[in-house]
Amino acid sequence: MSAKNKVLVVGAGLAGSSIARVIAEEGIKVDLIEKRNHIAGNAFDYLNEKGERIHKYGPHLLHGDINSKAVRFLSRFTEWVPYEHKVRALLPNNQTTPLPVNITTLEDIYNIKLEDESKANNFLEEIRENKLIPTNSDELFLASVGEKITNILFRPYTKKMWGVDPKELSIKVGARLSVRKSRDERYFEDTFQALPKEGYTSMVGNMLKHKNINIELKKEFNKEIEKNYDHCFLCLPIDVYFDNQYGKLPYRSIIFENKLKNDSFQNEPVINFTDNSRYTRVTKWKCFPNCKLAKCKDYTFTYEIPCPIEDNPGEYYYPIHTNKSKKMYMKYAKLAKSKKNIVFCGRTGLFKYIDMIPAVMIHIKIAENYLKNRN
Prior knowledge:
Layout: E1 6-10, H1 14-24, E2 29-34, E3 45-47, E4 53-55, E5 62-64, H2 69-75, E6 80-82, E7 87-90, E8 96-99, H3 103-110, H4 117-127, H5 137-162, H6 171-174, E9 192-196, H7 200-207, E10 213-217, E11 231-234, H8 238-241, E12 251-262, E13 270-272, E14 281-284, E15 298-308, E16 318-319, H9 323-336, E17 342-344, H10 346-349, H11 356-373
Parallel strand pairs: 1-2, 1-11, 2-10, 7-13, 11-17
Antiparallel strand pairs: 3-4, 5-9, 6-9, 7-8, 12-15, 12-16, 13-14, 14-15
């Protein structure tokens, strides 16, 4: 077969799998290689012997516009189970309070009663630094909720999560968490919130079931194979590809600890540890509606320990966006433009933390642009 009729996709996560499917449906042969021994990337999940559906790389939540092209695309490969995620944050008194900040959070922290949204709005105006024009995440916290809540809920958590002071983090990092003047305790407000009925691994597996897609697991990418293909879509670290010539882009990784505990340990699906402990959050998988759980004495709780990528090599989770790292990435992005038949994809290729629905949308567009411009 001519190289002009074949495409390489590196990485079998949502990004690479979306690209592979869109291109394969246009009659183009796709070789998809994946260094891990499974598909679905960091969204990989599985049922353990108890029927708990465990997300191996931490909880993954699908949320977005119900009318989006990405939701329609994914709906071809799975049935859905409605699920609105909720998170609680640990307070110094060992009680928990809702996140994102809402009326109940304000009441819990300040030991007050706010009768309605108007009272909550007035109170927020009193406590927040409303004259501050934020330029980083720390200033955004102060401008949104003031010093006390910033000190309790955000500063310790953010520092251990990202490994840098929140003053160094891009404002976009802090902006991911909203502040509400209602009692809405949902973590997300999107019109589409659901989990794949049979899990993410099954959904991605269905996506990759196509006669034009050939998958090879446990296969590392090397630059020698590029010449065998018309085009390459690389979901891999852009700095590593270019031999770190401008330096290493910074990432945080996560180490997971699974513990068995009885059902009374926690009622919420996720608790954030906002203290100075080494953990950032714990997930109770029983709370997810696509579990197929048998009744048992103890259930699985997964604790997350953030760490430098050097402590967990190859396991990339969160790109650390600082002024320095953004400038470094732009140098690599400029270099990438000289590679006419290569597109860097995914969070490590784009050096971008992307929610799942937007990630699918971005990579559908990448595939469509390739098809449009293909000779």
